[in-house]
Batch of 4 targets.
Target 1
Amino acid sequence: MQKCKCFLCSQKTDRTSLIVETTAPQGMHPLANAYLWRSFRLILELGFGLYSRRIALLRSLGLRGTESTLDIGCGTGEFSVVTSGTYLGVDMNPQYVQSAHRFHPGKEFLCADVTRLVSTGRSFEVGLLVDVLHHLPGEEIIRLFATLAEILTQRIYVIDPVTQSPSNRLGRWIISKDRGRFVRPKSELLSLLEGAMEVLTVHDTRLMLIEGICVTGKPRRL
Ligand SMILES: C[S@@+](CC[C@H](N)C(=O)[O-])C[C@H]1O[C@@H](n2cnc3c(N)ncnc32)[C@H](O)[C@@H]1O
């Protein structure tokens, strides 16, 4: 293990595999297994258009598909197809990152805790944060966006679930099983994002009964 000198990462890493020595808990949840996770998400894609509908939404919100893109909490890298330009996906689950390398050759992935990223001068036009903010406490989101403000030059796209309406019992049940411990009311997530970036648009989303929001913004430089 050695201190990573590549980019963005402040952690100790094995340079050959890009596996980061992280103290972040990986958990024993079955979906922490990359094979199960990827299969689960691909079934949701077939049944509900988990990725294709979201990519269409991102396109309708101005994502051209050629921008250099930093994908925060990239999972197994399914959003790497959003751009033909430079793409870097970052996720702290080493299994997910290995799977991303395997199924998306030619794209770049890094195993790291995104709350410990540092800017080393490399920049990206677009930042993507899909289904990741509900895994992070508010203070870590603020810190993450402060770092992103140094790395991103044009747009930030956030898609995340919010607290489900009382009448949406199935949605509430599904969210209660989510590994993310910080699913927030829409107003709370929005005010967090308004403090962290210059919010441009806000759309309500509903996918597989799950209520969420899609927010676009500009990095706010300090
Ligand atoms: C619900 S998944 C979404 C994955 C991907 N964005 C997608 O839509 O397919 C959330 C991801 O965030 C990652 N994650 C959560 N906290 C993280 C952190 N502190 N650093 C890096 N990745 C993190 C998890 O490992 C997981 O892959």
Target 2
Amino acid sequence: MQKFSIWSLLRNSVSYHEGWQKQWRSPEPKREYDVVVVGAGGHGLATAYYLAKEHGLRNVAVVERGWLGGGNTARNTTIVRSNYLWDEATQLYEKSMKLWEGLSQDINYNVMFSQRGVMNLGHSLQDMRDIQRRVNANRLNGVDAEVLSPQQIQEMLPFINLGSRYPVLGASFQRRAGVARHDAVAWGFARAADAHGVDILQNCEVKGIRREGGAVVGLDTARGFIRARKVAIVAAGHSSVLAEMAGFRLPLESHPLQALVSEPLKPIFPTVVMSNAIHAYISQSDKGDLVIGAGIDQYAGYGQRGSYHVIEGTLQAIVELFPLFSRVRMNRQWGGIVDVSPDACPIIGLTPVKGLYINCGWGTGGFKATPGSGWAMAYTVAQDRPHPLNEAFSLDRFYNGHLIDEHGAAAVAH
Ligand SMILES: Cc1cc2nc3c(=O)[nH]c(=O)nc-3n(C[C@H](O)[C@H](O)[C@H](O)COP(=O)(O)OP(=O)(O)OC[C@H]3O[C@@H](n4cnc5c(N)ncnc54)[C@H](O)[C@@H]3O)c2cc1C
């Protein structure tokens, strides 16, 4: 594989950049694979990459019904943080954060991980008590976290309106948190997985999951039957549809979640601001657009668009917090289908079908977990048992009641 570096950039510039290799192959499906991953979003591609890199599995395919990285991976607002409340969640997200910190070097692809900090605003005394509790819990878990006063917030964002209808009483702040470039994450993992021999099969929708004697044997796809010893479902909003093909049910609801971007502005917004109370979050992309996320639509559905009143409410909240933006024009709006679990935590583990594994339930907040999720899922598939990091996130918890309630830290989409 061609290596990206300053030297290869210089070398290629003399030939008008016509000598770059394709970033990944488009192979024909083989008849049989050791592992087939369903879903070429960031999580599926990361799973395939770590299966090859960490576990030496080379006969691996990723099947994708559309184009790679066209699902929620390409539709999210790219916030990366690890300041969850409970130990199990914090450790899983923190594993991911550590992988983010070395990811561009590891996969030799600039994922533009920018640790510009993430702020969670508190608008009431109860918000502030919750913030203090979470910051303490984070520190006990070795995760950086601090409480900001309104004055500290204003120093960072001089144009914030602290005295709006929802007064800003303070915020939690994780300095190592930030944003990454979502497309680059999908492309980088795809390129790195392909370099390890993983076949990425696009336009290859899974239409059926074949089982024999309670074990998975292969997949009926738009490109024919593909035999597989193991299958990993990593399909976000469509996970329940795939589970149904395999004869079991998931405790998930699929909801539309929206985001929108403004026209590009000069650099003005140096961090990421989230507010659970007013259901809005905002950052600025490297291109200059304000990237704004809304709350989820309350109805379940698979249409990749959302209700108008949700984004209208979001923009009202943003303008109240940042009146300066009242005349900025919005450029584009879109929706994705998020897979919401009852405790706002993911499901990563084995299923009732032998050889079939599931990774889903990331809901509104799985982008930040992309490398960690792929890493833990690869271990689970390769070893046929969960890694200690994802043991608590198995399907069993919905039977034995060991839920990990992260509604407080997840709350609004993020
Ligand atoms: C508007 C919005 C904002 C968000 N903001 C954030 C944020 O700021 N931070 C954060 O951490 N998270 C955020 N999220 C959540 C995050 O995007 C997701 O949790 C994460 O991207 C899920 O990644 P994935 O790889 O599992 O899913 P996806 O990228 O959706 O990949 C799943 C893939 O499976 C494919 N698939 C489905 N069915 C089949 C089939 N039958 N056969 C073959 N392939 C199939 C799909 O086409 C898709 O490409 C946001 C989500 C949305 C929608």
Target 3
Amino acid sequence: MANIVVRIAELDDRKRVLAFTSSTFSWGDYIERVFDRWLNDESGRLLVAEAEGMVVGLSFVKLTKKGEAWLQGGRVDQNYRRTGVGEAMTKECLRIAKEEMNASVARVITDKTNLPPQRLLTKLGFRVVSEFSEFEKAAERIKDPLLTRDVRLAGEELITDMWRYLRSSPIFRKSGGLYTVWFVWYSLGKEDLARFVKDGKAVVYARDGKIHGIMLVDDSTIEAKNEKSIQSCYFDSDAGEGVQALSNFLLDYAAKKGFGTVRLWTCSDNEIIESLRQIGFIGEVGGSTEIVYSKEL
Ligand SMILES: CC(C)(COP(=O)(O)OP(=O)(O)OC[C@H]1O[C@@H](n2cnc3c(N)ncnc32)[C@H](O)[C@@H]1OP(=O)(O)O)[C@@H](O)C(=O)NCCC(=O)NCCS
């Protein structure tokens, strides 16, 4: 469609945007909850697209870390889809990311079942870097110490060994070198790992003095989803027992801290997923599998 204008969103756009985003997905949409926050986010730009003088699209781009931009919230009014609006907004997000935010990479996720954005991203040169799945289980006290054997919170003396483990881990490669906090993915560098350790949110599975698994956790989901849950941000073990011991540790840790649900995010690795299922973690139902796309700028 000719004459698509992409511009920075204003407070006055709110009503119109909410009108065409109230029921984007079968479960509704989350735009209403984030519109004001995104509009006022100093490290982000909230964009709208106009066609025929009307606001028909929304998109958000944010600098999440030095050099890394995150795209989110792409929405086009049903009546204006397939007319180039999504493409125009995504290109503008990429321009802003590169020229105004100095980012060298842009990332975005789409639900595995959602094909239109996947096609759009492929058309614009994004490539798939990973796939992550979410599994859930109610928090529970794990009384049998054998079930969490060899698992403990990591101390700072372990950072170098943990980083070495990650550097040669096939799961780290499969994860695209990324971790997630509440539906945003970030590169996992040694300094990020150190931060998780210092915050008491890094867990190791170690046998005979050697690391065989790492789990990073975060509890910010409580605020974002208004529920008491805890998530794993990165999950990795080279042994089935490690997968189970780490997840049992998280179930117990969550129960002790009063969280209701554990949301376990992991890269979609068959062996990890099989081990999680064996101890009752449920995937897909209410959870999701997300494809992570990336584009060099
Ligand atoms: C995804 C979405 C933003 C795409 O917006 P759009 O304005 O319809 O997309 P465009 O018209 O700019 O399409 C650009 C390209 O994307 C691909 N594409 C978009 N929609 C498609 C569809 N339904 N089927 C196949 N390919 C599609 C095509 O390659 C298209 O290029 P082409 O028309 O030259 O073939 C829109 O479908 C939408 O709002 N969906 C609901 C919300 C959503 O799922 N957002 C993404 C969350 S990650």
Target 4
Amino acid sequence: MREAYSGGQLPQDIPALTPAGHAPRIAPVKRAVAMFSGGLDSSLAIRMMQLQGFEVYALFVETIFERCHPGVYRGAEALGVPLKVMPPKDDYLEVLRRPRFGYGQGANPCIDCRIYMCRCAKELMEELGACVVVTGEVVGQRPMSQHRWQQYLVEKHSGLKGRLLRPLSAKLLSPTIPEVEGLVDRDKLFDFSGRNRKPLINLARQLGIQIIPQPSIGCLLTHRSFAPRVFDLLRYRPTATRWEFEILMVGRHLRISPDTKIVVGRDAQENAVLEAAFHTHRPPECAYLHPENFAGPDVLVVGVLSEENLQLGLGFIARYTSKRKLPAVPLVSITRGQTREIRQLTDVKAPVQGVTL
Ligand code: SF4
């Protein structure tokens, strides 16, 4: 089941608004939204809430750099909870461009990103008439979002003050509103901290979670080797579009001047992605160079499409193609806007220009 919950299937017991636009006073419902990654921690958080009698809705907020994977669907199904996957939105780009609380070791704006995700969860909480948002965060487990002061910032700036519950570390944190109101039994919550996974695995066994999910490979933004691409784009294209961020995940990137970049496919799969990217939502200043009668890399020239820059693009095709695979007359097509021309790959020197990102 790809998406067990869709925005149209609201629970039946959400109170109607009064004519004045206020919700009538009724006893809070034991319903929670859980930020779910498919991993062990968020699975445990969901299980603990279920054991306290909560109806739990899982939420996965996709970003450009972290998409929902099959393990998330499987995990939600195993826990018996509906899952909503929120697709990436353009407003996430602002989080990347100007994170209020800075970046981590890579280009990861984790605190701002968590605030963004918690705001999404808050919206769903209100839509569903739930009383709390739950996460699997453990105090001190990760460097940039799971320290107490960071958690405080996330809670404050997401508008979830008193409504953000971390069942695995709750006893180390101030009681939330559902705990104070007696909806959540604080005695049944935990005080885990640090990076040791063993106690969490033991708890999973006690709670009947049979398959221990493996930690995911994580978000690309945390990778130090990926960060230069992101910072290069932010520096030279402060108003870069989503397309430009998405393309960062494909190919070899070379900055040849402040206004132009070249992207070179590294294998057949990346060539196919570059071709598809060129044909969808590309910026107007983009050319697609494709070897017509030999196996070589596809190239995008993004920026100024001068003859000099196109020659550099051709040069990178020459550089990354095995000379033995070249036919007697190697042909490359160059597509710009609506125009397509065929050129012979002759006398093109492999350029030394360009900074590899
Ligand atoms: S690791 Fe990536 S997805 Fe997770 S909080 Fe940080 S920036 Fe966001």
